[in-house]
Amino acid sequence: MSYHVEHLHSVQAVDDAVNREGESGRLVVVRFGRGGDDGCARLDAALAAAAERIGPVAALYAVDIDEARGFNVMYELHGPCTLMDDIDWAAYYSGGGFAGLVQAVHERAKAGRLLVIVD
């Protein structure tokens, strides 16, 4: 099976994807931002580089905050690119570190952990 970063274009598409993946047991990784932003482009490249490695355990999605505006207030999406707080994503842009992080979170979540701290 081939894995990739799927672009979602509406709030309903995001909700449907989260619900579908929730039933499958895979993690859901969503990049909110503006595709034309340089930081978002680098993060999208990291997600794409990691897609094959983490595809079996995580679904990767990109959402343009100008298309799916319903999340902007709810998640306080004001910057050009948001994936998760408190992580230095620059360290993971090669794809390998990011893939390892996602796999570690998936393993701990399957073991019943609701909070995963990776240092």
Order of helices and strands: EHEHEEH
* Dominant shape: globular
Under the CATH scheme, the architecture is 3-Layer(aba) Sandwich
Number of helices: 3
Count of extended strands: 4
Mean pLDDT: 79
Structure description:
One of its GO terms (biological process) is mRNA splicing, via spliceosome. InterPro entries: Dim1, Thioredoxin-like_sf. Pfam families: DIM1 (PF02966). Belongs to the DIM1 family. The chain contains 3 helices and 4 strands; from the N terminus they run βαβαββα. The protein has 119 residues and is α/β, with parallel strands linked by helices. A 4-stranded mixed beta sheet has the order 1-3-2-4, with helices on both faces. Helix 2 links the parallel strand 2 and strand 3.
Any key phrases for this structure?
single chain, 119 residues, alpha/beta, Glutaredoxin, 3 helices, 4 strands, 17% strand, globular
Task: Describe this structure in a few short sentences.
It contains three helices and four strands, in the order E-H-E-H-E-E-H. It has a single domain, classed as Glutaredoxin, CATH 3.40.30.
